[in-house]
Amino acid sequence: MSDPLDTVFAALADPTRRAILSMLLEDDMAVTDVAEPFQMSLAAISKHLTILTRAGLITQEKRGRVKWCKLDPDAMKAASVWMQSFGQFEPVNLDSFERFLEQELAPPDTKPLTE
Amino acid sequence: MSDPLDTVFAALADPTRRAILSMLLEDDMAVTDVAEPFQMSLAAISKHLTILTRAGLITQEKRGRVKWCKLDPDAMKAASVWMQSFGQFEPVNLDSFERFLEQELAPPDTKPLTE
DNA sequence: TCTATATTCAACCAATCGGTTGACGATTTC
DNA sequence: GAAATCGTCAACCGATTGGTTGAATATAGA
Question: Residue A50, CB half-sphere, CA atoms under 13 Å: how many?
Fold first, then answer.
């Protein structure tokens, strides 16, 4: 009924949810740990996590009494591809972005020093 | 007050607004012409257009009694770059990603040459 | 078994959203 | 000047959103 892009973009529109995604970029986390840095209730964070899950941006797996949250970048990639179709991004130089990523993803010993 | 990403993603979350953006990809259009293919009132489309404008996704310029709508890909670019960071997994160094963004989003005359 | 921890559920709330309608101001055209 | 066109404004509506609280459900550990 509703385009997956609806739910993905709607999920990304909230700063709390984007912050959660950034946290999960570094490591998988339990719900309680996700909630810790925020000033809202655990229930509120739990709702944010189900929204992210339904959007396909994360997956949740229960092990014991702990539910682990894991980034799932596929849905974001779909949205990203949609946005690319507005491709006149010339000024922002996706080329140099790719070079940046290549650098970042290279094995550590091939990386040029940045400091 | 609110992160520009909030308004950009929120604007993109509505299918009508995404359709409008796709239409504007082909050519600039007057408000009435934007509204024509949709089954909702002109006033509704007008609201959608102000949301897109506030998000920075389009610009509107009035000439005579006609208001022309034009795609403005800069805001989308910022959102797109934000999303790119999730496409590739773990090893992305967020610190240097931020440095990259500062560089990219800086005024052109302050940018170091990349070629 | 009793208790503490992890998470969700259910009910509620105010604010926002996406739509409508009708009136209105500005501009063009006859 | 009168009439038609372009677009927004204002008020209203029902549905959704983002948050709260308190109770409920699992699971783990003593």
Answer: 5
